[in-house]
Amino acid sequence: MTTEHLYEHFLKSSGACTDTRNISENCLFFALKGDNFNGNKFAGEAIEHGAMLAVIDEAEYHQEGNTILVDNVLESLQQLGRYHRIHSKARVIGLTGSNGKTTTKELMHSVLSQSYRVIATRGNLNNHIGVPLTLLRIKKDTEIAIVEMGANHQKEIEFLCSLAEPDFGYITNFGKAHLEGFGGVAGVIAGKSELYDHLKNKNAPIFMNADDQVQHEKLQSYTKKIGFSTTDENFYQIKFLEASPFVSLEAEGTVIKTQLVGKYNFNNCCAALLVGKYFNVPMVLIQDALSEYIPENNRSQLVEKAGYHILLDAYNANPTSMKAALENFDQLRSNTKCAILGDMFELGKDAEQEHQEIAELAAKSNFSEVLLVGKNFSRCQTTLKQFEGFEKLSEYLEKHKLPKGDILIKGSRGMALERVLPLLN
Fold first, then answer.
1. pLDDT digits over 324-340, tens only?
2. For residue range 251-289, what is the model confidence (pLDDT) as tens digits?
3. Could you confirm whether domain 3-77 is CATH 3.40.1180.10?
4. Global pTM?
5. How many beta carbons lie within 10 A of that of residue 391, not counting itself?
6. What whole-number distance in Å separates Cα of residue 355 and Cα of residue 107?
7. N or C: less crowded end of the chain, CB within 10 Å?
8. Which residues pair with 251 in a beta bridge?
9. CA dist 214 → 172, 174, 190, 229, 331 (Å)
């Protein structure tokens, strides 16, 4: 079946679904396959739960009138997402980077929603499946779509751009994330810059942090760049005020006090402010949006518990974000500070060195106690306390109470360090 014919069915549906546990009435179910599952087997169940049609790629599961047989379900989903996007009047902002993508996306959504009808990537659905699903959520009245793009190897952003066809773009930063897949920092820069390449080919506007050296070099000769800076008067001026612990900033004489913890969130706020100004959102509404935004999903949350002030940042971690978190935490005005740090994943051959450097940075910091958790951290040469796994850490915390005060909890998602919270009492 051609994309055009599939699109005719999509327009009659309530939207696209890929999970039988979350079927919406009259949706178009895409029977995706993975290493441990085959969506074709659930086509019948999807129809029973209310799906209008199921898109499958294995003939044995075909049900006349209930299924659409295609060569490849994933490719059909991707091409349908692209087809829907290019037939939409919505302006698309492509967003990628090593750190802060999701927070920046949420902040941009909060700001732009003050004046426009906006959709944005849900959660972290930012890959080859999530991007087309996001595009298919664009409605007739959608004015702006913010599409987050994640990647762990080169050419991935290039492919996602071919689906989303962004009209604007922003890269948060180029950090030490997914080094294994990208083949080092140079690979990260090349991979993330594929968004720049796509936009340059279209002569489209690019939002930038003019204080970021890599971004400055990459866009030095590009005429359609729109940037913010704390120092360069050639760009939109934003002043950092403080992060103790919440970020405050100033632009055009307006002070904005956010509920985001850590100086590393300053640039995320600046990007949302810059985009809001570009789209002519009134400053008073930008101020409201940034000051009222509250992070969730274990991203830089401040949790008060049993006399502890806990900075919970357990959603993700890489050397760049870990270093920023430690430096920010070290600068907080507090007499007692402890840190619980979990392994950083997907670093490949750089894992040993990167974990060692973080351990050394933590050891030099003004912390009362530092607990390192995970196989990589347990191999570090350090005098800090080390635990190979969460069970060992749990046993320690049950016997040894951390001193009351501030606690930083940060690690990769796979470490699930939010499990520490019930142990603090």
1. 999 989 988 888 999 99
2. 999 999 999 988 999 999 999 999 999 999 999 999 999
3. no
4. 0.85
5. 9
6. 31
7. C
8. 254
9. 11, 8, 11, 14, 26
